[in-house]
Specification:
about 775 residues; Znf_RING/FYVE/PHD; about 30% helix; alpha+beta; Znf_FYVE_PHD; zinc ion binding; mitochondrion; seven-stranded mixed sheet
Length: about 775
């Protein structure tokens, strides 16, 4: 505050002089009144006095015209009615004291003091005007809060309940360009957090729900907008309550703390418990360790105009007692804030993240609780913009959304360190190395930003996971670290030439910079191990969801099968049309006379399903019509048509009318007898060919399993497409992605791309997901 008196301030109260005489000798006009110093002060005395640490937080007001001071004796610690605020009625010019009517009668009614000159204040008129002004202002404020309602911001599962930034502003019921701060409250369950917010900001209206029941009435995080102070008020769930998902709910509290400008820690205990100091100390440590970096990243990522402060909020400890004195009452020389810092130090907690910590206590002899001191402390902190400045509501929502996206997911109980309120497991990746058991040190959901897993210590080798990687020794000596893998052929060889070289001289190790540096059978004898000559070995961590590192990438057998399958498929596709036409014609030639020709059967005679090129048509041996497989799956002898005594395929209708006699003439029977023999011979030939095909398919499957690269998922484990989840069947073939080894249908794996890390240097089949990855596969 400036020591210079502005022109409007001069002459406002010519009868009120400085009562401190600390810097002015009592000759300057009073400009301030300090409630806790119990005196009127000029500009110089007010500035010099309250520069001291123990007097810095005193409540003081600037005097207005016609100001009537309080009675000096009433407000004195030794006065007759401590705590009762009485306005002065007169001022004794000799004693230099302001006296109310009662104190004036008691102290100046006898002796020589009766003749002291006094100045009478016009108390009644000023009092009435002040009360009327205060009443009008109070009425306006109450009216502004009549329509305020709270809404659920985040539920108990850490899921934000507002859809976007506009929805958040609409529920807050504030303007999008309004600058506001965030005030949140913390404390144990049942300590009256919601009640405190209702009386501090909303004049006792139940904006936040309160309940006398044992169960907690606040679940999750609720928010409301205070139009008077222009703050977003946030109510949180209480600590130490009987609840599920305790770890996630505790982590949610720190997210709210991170977006707050002021937090109130509400306690109703007669003495301050250690839980309060442990909570704030652990929250400070977790904030600095995990949230500071994320808030900086959010500012850059979201392009926010107002930077998010990396320094934590201001803390106000609101302590209400009934039977005990307030903190510092028995140590007048020490301010409460110093005693609080001593408690933190004794417990080994250091609240370095918070911009300031203040103590505001009230002792309730008889209800209701007095929240005026807390309200004044909040208003003082809201006016302080040196550390955290107001910002748009959209910035607040983006910060909360970014923190929720980053720090989310379940927290395994077996990994919890319960010695802290906010252990690292709440905010770090839950993945653990499969080889050595060390956890990842990165933040949660770091994969969304393309960051790999990292550990604090080195890994140990495990034969089960073969967690070795090879790097080119020559490149390493030149200051480069280039990974290499054993594979079937060099990238410069054609597929068939690579197979030929592999059969003659074995697998190769190829460096992108040095070319082929090793062949396993380069010489007839005396071939050395590559680790001893051209590569160096490094042991790396094995994270869940990743493959091994030096698995067999020798895919020569699979390459050979792929080539044979390609040739066979080409021949099959080219000959498919003529083969089906010849087969259909030949079947019609040997079919009995009463069978409908294949060329005339377009739909199933019962369900009317249209036949496609790959669908098989079946003739009923009784009526001769064409059916699909499901409508002609039953069998019985048909002796009247010459099919017997063995059961043959019939349609459902003919099976149900098995006892009915067919009206067949003798000539028809003779004609059918001749063609029936040809048909039976044809079916025998078809069954024989089918058995031959089956006999070929079975060993082919065994060969495929034997030729499968080690990183491929076995065929018998692939039941559905890894991408679209379609189940594989006879009509839906399964294909392996050459990069990840998972099984896909043709639609989800029709892309072609080289996969050098797996030994496929020429374009091969890859799935959609692997094809989207940047760089070399």
């Amino acid at each position: 505050m400036s020591a210079q008196t502005s022109l409007p301030e001069k002459g406002l109260n010519p009868g009120l002089m400085c009562q401190e005489s600390y810097a002015c000798s009592g000759t300057d006009e009073a400009v301030f009144e300090c409630d806790e110093c119990c005196s009127l002060q000029c500009l110089r005395c007010e500035e010099e006095l309250h520069r001291q640490e123990r007097l810095r937080n005193h409540e003081r007001i600037r005097l207005k015209a016609g100001h009537v001071p309080y009675c000096d004796i009433c407000k004195s610690p030794n006065g007759h009615s401590p705590g009762v605020r009485q306005r002065a009625f007169v001022r004794c010019q000799s004693c230099k004291n302001n006296l109310c009517l009662e104190c004036q009668k008691r102290t100046h009614s006898g002796g020589s003091k009766r003749r002291h000159p006094i100045t009478v204040y016009n108390v009644s008129r000023i009092q009435e005007s002040l009360e009327a002004e205060e009443m009008d202002e109070e009425t306006k404020r109450k009216k502004m809060t009549e329509k305020v309602v709270s809404f659920l911001l985040v539920d108990e599962n850490e899921e934000i309940q507002v859809t976007n930034e506009d929805d958040f502003i609409r529920k807050l019921d504030c303007k999008p360009d309004q600058h506001l701060k965030v005030v949140s409250i913390f404390g144990n369950t049942g300590d009256g957090k919601s009640h405190t917010l209702n009386h501090t900001f909303f004049y006792g209206r139940e904006v936040f729900k309160t309940s006398p029941a044992q169960e907690s009435c606040t679940v999750g995080v609720w928010a409301a907008y205070d139009p008077i102070h222009r703050v977003a008020v946030i109510d949180t769930e209480g600590l130490l309550g009987a609840t599920v998902n305790l770890s996630q709910r505790t982590r949610l509290l720190l997210k709210v703390l991170a977006i707050s400008d002021i937090i109130i820690y509400r306690t109703h205990a007669d003495r301050l418990h250690n839980d309060l100091f442990k909570f704030l100390g652990d929250a400070s440590e977790a904030y600095l360790k995990h949230f500071t970096k994320e808030l900086k990243a959010t500012t850059a990522r979201c392009g926010l105009d107002v930077p998010l402060s990396t320094l934590g909020p201001a803390v106000i400890i609101f302590h209400e007692t009934v039977h005990t004195q307030l903190l510092g009452s028995d140590h007048p020389s020490d301010v409460p804030e110093k005693l609080i810092q001593d408690r933190f130090r004794k417990l080994g907690r250091f609240p370095e993240a918070f911009s300031s910590i203040h103590y505001k206590g009230t002792r309730t002899y008889n209800p209701p609780t007095d929240f005026s001191g807390l309200r004044r402390a909040l208003e003082q902190q809201l006016e302080n913009n040196t550390t955290r400045s107001p910002r748009h509501p959209g910035v607040i929502f983006k910060a909360l959304k970014a923190l929720s996206d980053r720090f989310s997911g379940e927290i395994p109980d077996e990994q919890m360190a319960h010695s802290s309120f906010f252990p690292d497991e709440y905010f770090t990746c839950s993945s653990v190395c499969l080889s050595c058991g060390v956890g990842c040190k990165n933040s949660m959901n770091h994969a969304k930003e393309g960051l790999p897993h990292e550990a604090k210590s080195r890994c140990s080798y495990s034969h089960q996971y073969d967690n070795r990687v090879y790097t080119c020794k020559a490149c390493y000596e030149r200051g480069k670290e280039v990974s290499v893998v054993p594979k079937t052929s060099a990238s410069t060889d054609s597929p068939w030439m690579g197979l030929a070289k592999y059969a003659w001289s074995g697998y190769v190790i190829e460096c992108p910079n040095c070319g082929v540096v090793y062949r396993s059978r380069q010489y007839w004898f005396g071939n050395q191990d590559p680790v001893d000559t051209v590569v160096r070995t490094e042991i790396v961590h094995v994270w869940p969801g990743t493959d091994g590192f030096l698995k067999d990438n020798n895919n020569a057998a699979q390459r050979l099968l792929d080539g044979m399958n390609f040739m066979a498929q080409s021949v099959s596709e080219l000959s498919l049309g003529p083969t089906k036409a010849v087969t259909s014609w030949l079947t019609d030639q040997i079919a009995p006379a009463y069978w409908r020709p294949n060329s005339q059967i377009l739909n199933c005679n019962k369900c009317a399903t249209s036949f496609k090129d790959n669908d098989t048509k079946h003739h009923c041996r009784a009526c001769g019509e064409g059916f699909c497989d499901s409508c002609s799956s039953k069998t019985r002898p048909v002796p009247e048509r010459g099919w017997g005594p063995a059961p043959v395929r019939v349609c459902d209708n003919c099976y149900d009318t098995r006892n009915a006699q067919l009206d067949i003439t003798e000539a028809q029977a003779d004609e059918e007898g001749g063609t029936l023999i040809a048909r039976k011979v044809g079916e025998a030939v078809q069954n024989t060919l089918g058995a031959v095909v089956t006999a070929i398919d079975i060993p082919l499957g065994l060969v495929k399993d034997a030729a499968r690269p080690a990183y491929w998922v076995p065929d018998h484990e692939i039941l559905h497409c890894h991408n679209c989840r379609k189940e594989f069947s006879v009509k839906l073939s399964k294909h392996h992605c050459r990069a990840c080894g998972q099984g896909f249908c043709d639609e989800c794996s029709h892309d072609r791309r080289a996969v050098p890390s797996r030994g496929w240097d020429h374009p091969v089949r890859v799935c959609f997901n692997c094809n989207k990855k940047p760089g070399d596969l």
